[in-house]
Structure formats: structure tokens, C-alpha cells
Amino acid sequence: MSRASRPHPRLPLRLRRPQPWARQRPTWRDARPAVIAGAVRAALARPSGNWFVLGAARDIAAGRAFGRTVAGVEVVAWRDAAGRLVAGPGACPHLGAPLALGPVHCGVLRCRWHGLALDGAPFAGWEPFPAHDDGLLAWVRLDGAGGELPLPEPVLPVRPRPAGTVAAVHTATGVCEPEDVVANRLDPWHGAWFHPYSFADLTMTDSSAGGEPSEGLTVEVSFRVAGRAVVPVTARFTAPEPRTVVMHIVAGEGRGSVVETHATPLGPDDRGRPRTAVVEAIVATSRRPGFALARVVAPALRPLMRAAAARLWRDDMAYAERRWELRSSGRLPG
After folding, report:
1. Which residues contact 47 (CB under 8 A, 6 or more apart)?
2. pLDDT the model gives residue 294
3. Confidence grade of residue 230 (pLDDT, cut at 50, 70, 90)
């Protein structure tokens, strides 16, 4: 290893000579359609317990309601007087008014049309949905839409302890189904080709033989910082449930950090096409003493983390939408 490429003793950076985009090693032979399809099938076969991500937990704050259509079901969510997450049908049981537009006072949601008040308990034909706040994301359980055996809580990935992390959540929407989002994330081979501004030196360290999915996909990749500076890590992709793919950093700088990609079906658009929300949670951690400063300035870092996720998802949503277009017309290769 040359002196220029050795890691700095204090910094996790390495310097690499810029490689023209077209001179990268092609990954299309490794990214076998049968492997990706097998991994997607395995993910879709796992139980979700009918839980769907509504959005970031911090987006459902005290004093206001939050509305979203999930799997064609209008949902309203808010915080009760104790700060607990409450969710239920988004239409007022009186005359169908949109409850998400109603004010919340002392944990009570009031319909704007005629003042019907809801504190989260069943009332006047309104029945709450099971809801779960995991500290980062808000979930709702829709047994009618999910059609599975219900679970008491959502299937959650392992995360580092909140006290040692900086976390941010980005949401994007596109014309596709959750399956297409999951397929995008279970194709790590596209990283350095499709996102050259963020990734370099991508090498898969394992995959599946004969088209059978493994328990995960492990990749060695360098995150670009600026110019020739990169941060090499080893990441592992797994799908704990049918609408979630998780990337854990298992070696290198930021070991223990997590990126969770959750795909929530919304409902058809005005042309009858499916719409899906991608709710991506980034949970960053580091064993370096200087990371304590990052936690101090977390409010300033979160917008930067969301902006980085938004840039990636502009590309990845195009991938997912293209896959749905091909799949829905019977033209998807493989």
C-alpha cells in the first residue's frame, strides 16, 4: 500500500486515485436477476404482522394531527394527553370529515366540521388502530389491508442505543409498489455505477449460488467524502420483513450504524397507478470520541443527512418506478 493510500492515524479517510466512471469493473454479471428475484421473494414471504410505517415519529408532534393514506386506508394519527401515539380511521364517523385537518388540544382531536371529540378511545363508531412508536418511526397496524396474522409489535431491526447516535428520517414517494423498492435495495451491485457521487470501489463479498437467496448480502464499499477522500466500510443488507430492507455497517468507520428503508403502499394515483412512500431512517454512530460533538450539533446535521438521502432516492426511485413499469407490462427481464 502506498503512503498516499494509507489511512490517516486520526481520521477514517483513505485517498484513492479518481477512476473514470466508464472504467469501473462491470457488475452486471454478478447482479444476476435470479439472485435479486430470489432475495425479493424471500423478503416478501416474511411476516409483517400487518404493520406499516406511517412516517417519522417526530413528525407526529403534540398539538397537531398527521394524516396519510396507507394501503388505501385513510389514517389519522396524533399524540394523546400522555404523549402516546394514537391512530385510527381518518374519516370522522359523523359525516366523513377529514380528521387530519382537525386541531388537537390536550391530546383530544376535534373534528373541524361539527366538533366531535376523540381522545383515542372508541367513540361514536370510531375505532382506533393499533399503533407503535419505536422512538424513531411511527407504525400503524391495518389487519384488513395486511391480511396476515397480526403481531403485537412491528418487526424491528437491531439499532444502536439512541444515546450514542444521530438519526434522521427522509420520506419520498413514487409510482411503484413496495416490492420494487425492496428489489432496489436488494441490488447493492448498482451502487457505484448508479450513484458515483456517493460510492466507489464496490465489491460484493458474498452472494447466492444457483439463484437461491442467502440470509443477506455483504458488500465492501467506499463512501465518497470529497475529492480523493473516501471512507471504506463493510455493509450487510437484510430484509427482516416484506416492506423493509436494512443496511448495517458491520466493519469500518461507523460500525453499528444503520440505514432502514421502509416501503409503505399508499394507494392509486389519479391514473390508477400504485403509489409507495419510502421512509428511510438513517441512524449514525461512531466509537470515536469526537462523535460526541456530532450529537451536540445533531439539529444541524439532520437536514444534511436528509439531503444526502434525498439525492440517492431521486435515482433509486427512478429505478423502482422503471421496475414497476416493466413488471406491470410483463417486460421485466429475468
Report:
1. 148, 149, 151, 155, 241, 242
2. 83
3. confident
Tens digits of residue pLDDT in 79-100: 999 999 999 999 999 999 999 9
- Express each pLDDT in 272-281 by its tens digit: 999 999 999 9
Beta bridge partners of 265: 276
Written as one letter, the residue type at 16 is R
Q: Report the b/e string of 268-294 with b at 16+ CB within 10 A.
A: eeeeeebbbbbbbbbbbbbeeeebeeb
Q: State residue 21's pLDDT score.
A: 83
Q: Report the C-alpha gap between 95 and 69 in whole angstroms.
A: 18
